[in-house]
Design a protein that fits this description.
By secondary structure, the protein is of the alpha/beta class. It is about 40% helix and about 15% strand. This is tRNA-uridine aminocarboxypropyltransferase.
């Protein structure tokens, strides 16, 4: 975990206690989430700016940003990288490479608990319609569809260029992804009044061989 290392010694301890005290006094869950996210992101930005490349998130001496060759995503498809704040600026995070490869308009990062970014994502969903939204997540409560079940042909037509297929990719640990899934589902129910959040998996052959490992992380 990155710390706000512009504050040292006892001052850091006092500052940390102060922030934790403010957080503890918040009673609204939404305010607590926003406070947690803001502190995570701010501390990681401040704590890493001297030694991490802010584009590829690797140590500056290992920066690979100049080696990334941008390419175009298929017309009519848009990725949303829904990232947990604890994965923001992590050196071993590979999700942000989607944004570097395809550009922010085709692969947009949205940090869990940042209301401005989440509103942008949901506004795009509402414009495109609920039939264009798919979450890459192995929903244990229902059988997720496979990529082959999605009508990709509709996304390539000229009339649908303003309503692309939106694929939401959860970027976080297994437990953190569960929290993000619940937040997405709550918003989905609020907007469309449906309990089922459409999920898609990369394989329809059952649980991944990594399934048990993820639960133990």
């Amino acid at each position: 975990m990155y710390l706000c290392n512009n504050i040292n010694g006892n001052l850091r301890v006092v500052d940390d206690k102060k922030k934790r005290s403010v957080y503890a006094k918040l009673s609204d869950p939404e305010q607590k989430l926003q406070c947690f996210t803001a502190r995570q992101v701010a501390c990681r930005l401040v704590g890493s700016r001297r030694y991490l490349c802010q584009k590829c998130w690797l140590p500056k001496e290992d920066c690979m940003f100049s080696r990334i060759v941008p390419c175009n995503l298929l017309h009519g498809i848009r990725f949303w990288l829904y990232m947990h704040p604890k994965d923001f600026l992590r050196q071993n995070n590979t999700g942000k490479l989607l944004c570097q490869l395809f550009g922010n308009q085709a692969a947009t990062m949205c940090v869990f608990g940042v209301p401005e970014q989440e509103e942008i994502m949901w506004d795009a969903f509402k414009r495109a319609g609920k039939d264009t939204i798919w979450l890459l997540y192995p929903n244990v409560n229902s059988s997720p569809k496979s990529v082959g079940d999605i009508n990709l042909d509709r996304s390539f037509s000229e009339e649908n260029k303003e309503k692309p297929l939106n694929f939401v990719l959860l970027d976080g640990t297994w437990s953190n992804s569960s929290a993000m899934y619940r937040r997405l589902k709550e918003r989905w129910v609020t907007i469309w009044g449906e309990e089922d959040l459409p999920c898609v998996s990369l394989s329809s052959l059952g649980a991944s061989v990594m399934h048990k490992l993820r639960y133990n992380l």
